[in-house]
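TASK: fixed-backbone design
INPUT:
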């Protein structure tokens, strides 16, 4: 594991701990379930942008960062995800089950955020 990957994993873990304060408890996973269960990312989704323009990407990130902060979330670090949709996406947290991720995502949507639930990319 390289230093960048380790840094990202640590940031995601800190974000997970912060967001768990608002989530409903799930029974803990154990044994084989723990090793086989995928993690689920919650991504705050922002505007479409021209991916070739660094200025446009920075502006989209700033708008999304402001929306997340306005929704009451305090993230230790901002982990950005870009995909083929050319939208700013910010990792809000990771959760151990899809059901829990969907519950937390719904709460965040009620705060006005556009949230996407996706399996963790490994």
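OUTPUT:
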């Amino acid at each position: 594991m390289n230093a960048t990957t380790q840094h990202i994993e640590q940031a995601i873990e800190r974000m997970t701990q912060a967001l768990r304060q608002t989530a409903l408890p799930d029974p803990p996973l154990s044994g084989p379930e723990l090793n086989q269960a995928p993690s689920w990312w919650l991504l705050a989704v922002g505007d479409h942008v021209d991916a070739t323009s660094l200025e446009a990407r920075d502006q989209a990130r700033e708008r999304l960062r402001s929306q997340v902060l306005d929704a009451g979330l305090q993230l230790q670090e901002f982990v950005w995800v870009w995909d083929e949709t050319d939208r700013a996406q910010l990792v809000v947290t990771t959760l151990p089950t899809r059901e829990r991720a969907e519950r937390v995502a719904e709460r965040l949507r009620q705060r006005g955020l556009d949230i996407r639930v996706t399996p963790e990319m490994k």
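COMMENT: The first helix runs from residue 3 to 19.
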